[in-house]
Structure formats: structure tokens, C-alpha cells
Amino acid sequence: MRAFLAVIVTCSVLGPSVWALTRDEENSVDIYRRFNAGVVNITSRAVSYDFFLNPVPTDSSGSGFILDSQGHILTNYHVVKGAQRLEVSLTDRSKWPAKMVGADPQTDLAVLAIKAPPESLTVMPLGDSSTLQVGQKVLAIGNPFGLEHSLSAGIVSMIRRVVKAGDAEIEDVIQTDAAINRGNSGGPLLDSEGKVIGITTAIFTPSGGNVGVGFAIPINTAKRVVGDLLAQGFVVYPYFGAEAQTVTPIIARALNLPVEYGALVIRVWKGGPAAKAGLVSGTQQVIIGNTIVVMGGDIIVLADGQAITSSEELRRLVRRRLPGDIMKLEIIRQGKRGTIEVRLGERPRDRIPLKE
Asked: Using 50, 70 and 90 to split pLDDT, how confident is the model at 182?
């Protein structure tokens, strides 16, 4: 009996030291305490109609974070898409009607605004996503299922060069194993200094839960578009007016092409910049292995002096230009090399109503 009591006393004395936080745990706790208040819950309400044309309001929930002391909030576009009423909840439990300031479906980002007093707003510091490394620790704060804020931790699993989802095609997407639940979309992904390096946007999960692969939009992408969203409500993108397919050595050998790499033009939109410049599209479909290839079009091998080895490289180069810029392309047409110049236009965009 005395031995048993001695064990209890010993455990009670050693308890605090046995359960002391590690340095990594202290870092996570500190970041949550300092920046939790900068994360907001966003409730969006839309109205649909049933078979008898009766209005049926539907609510959905997501996350966002505070950009500045003026009450601007960054979130995902898909969180607020189609909303007829927006409400933002702060950690002090105050609720504020919100308006959409600007939206960009291409990057799945949107900026909202609330009229909360500056002293009630915790502004989130922005980091630099270009310096991220695979294996680096990251933390996600959000409102899963519309509940209280939660924190999940993980690492950067991969930096994906391009991820395409619907109309959005985003570069340098951050892949992470940090748990991302429904309702976390639009919340911040933080580094170990508490700086925002990404905006959590989606999870690929075979099970339907949070076990899977999470994705976040890099903060540098947000930095590039936020200025336009605040100033004019939309982002202007260049328009090339053609679609291309990557040439691989297997495709090159099968089609007896003179090069093993490049961007094969498979479609040119009538009246677009590429069509006006005389770019030729493919005319015939063939199957090579498991790939459908549209053959007969121009092969773009150089753009502004830069080698083009894939269709992704061509799109990336176009995205870094402005409407009105001239791109000088070196092409191969029917085995002969030549050059053409394409003056980029302005990409047509959806008119997104900005609600007061």
C-alpha cells in the first residue's frame, strides 16, 4: 500500500516535467494564441427554388482572414460564389454584414469588406511562398463544419507546378498533409513564424473525410491579384486565343515530327489574337497509346527567345504578359521553321455582381 502511494506521489511530482511542451508544441500554441483572432468565419446565403417555385434559402460556411485594419478579408471565391448575403463572424463573437469587393475565379480568390472598428481586427502578416521547401512545417487555422476555430499541423508535401480545377488554373500550389475539413476553405496556411504563406482551398480525399491531400493557393499569387481586386473588383488577364498540347518524344516519334519537345497547337479561336497572327490549328485526331492528339497544327518551340517544352510553359509565359504585349513565337509548320508575332488581347471575363 505504501509503495502504491509512493508511486502516486512520485507521478504527481514528476507530472509537470513529464508533460512539458516540446519546443515545436510551444511554437504551435504561440502561433494559435497570437493569430487565431485574425481568422474569421464566413456565412453565405443563397436562394434557390423548389419544384413549386417556392424560395429555399441555403447557407454555407467557410473561412477567411483579415488583410488590413480597414476590414478587408481574403477568402476563396468558391466560398462566396453566388451568395446573396454575406456575414462575417469574428472571434469576439460579433457578426458583421459583408460586401464583396472583388473576385477572381481564375485564382479562386475573393476580397470581402466589413465595417468593424479597427481595434477589433487582428491583421494577419503575409509571408513569401516562393521560399517554401518540401518538409517545412505548416499550420492551418479555420472553421471546420462552422464550429469554433481549430488548428491543424503538417508539412509541405509538394509544390505542384500547376493545378487545374474548373476555370481556375493555379501555379505553384502548396500540397500539404495538414488536416483540411469542409469549412476550412479560405483560411490561412501559416509557417512557423505565423506568417500566411497560403490560402487553404481544397482537399482530395477518397474517404470523404479529412484524410487525403490538401491544397493551398500560394500567398504570392494572392499578392499579385489583391491590388486589382481592391482597385477595380476584377483582375485583367492576357488572352492568347489558342490551345496547345505538349509534344513528348513518344508523340514526336509517332507523328514523325522534327522536334521532340514543344507545344502543338490543337485549337485556335476565331477572331482571337492567335488567329489574327495566322497561327494554324490541328485538323485530325489520332490516338497514340492512351493519348488523343490533334495533329496538323503549328508547333511552338520558342516564345520571346525562351524554349517551350510543354503547353504548361507556354501558358505560364502568357500569364506573365499584359494585354497589348507582343509575343514573338518561333514555330514549325509542315517541317519548316518560321516566326510570327501575336499581340495579346484581354481575356473575356465573367461579370460578377458585387453585393452591397
From this structure: low
Q: Identify whether 44 is a catalytic site residue.
A: no
Q: Of 173, 203, 232, which residue is a domain's last?
A: 232
The active-site residue, picked from 60, 72, 104, 108, is 108
Is residue 101 classed as helix, strand or coil in its secondary structure? strand
Quote the CA–CA distance of 141 and 37 in Å, as a whole number.
Answer: 10
The active-site residue, picked from 63, 78, 150, 310, is 78
CATH number for position 89: 2.40.10.10
List the CATH number of the domain containing 276: 2.30.42.10
Nearest alpha-carbon partner for 73 in 36, 108, 100: 100
Model pTM score = 0.79
Q: Is 185 a catalytic residue?
A: yes
Beta bridge partners of 103: 110
pLDDT in tens, 117-132: 999 999 999 999 999 9
Note the pLDDT tens digit of each residue in 218-262: 999 999 999 999 999 999 899 999 999 999 999 999 999 999 999
User: Would you call 149 a catalytic residue per the annotation?
Assistant: no
> Which of 73, 99, 120 is the C-terminal boundary of a domain?
120
User: Residue 28 carries which DSSP code?
Assistant: H
Using CA atoms, how far apart are residues 342 and 274, in angstroms rounded to an integer?
Answer: 6
The vertex-88 CA angle with 143 and 168, nearest 5°, equals: 70
Residue 317 · residue 303 · CB < 8 Å: yes
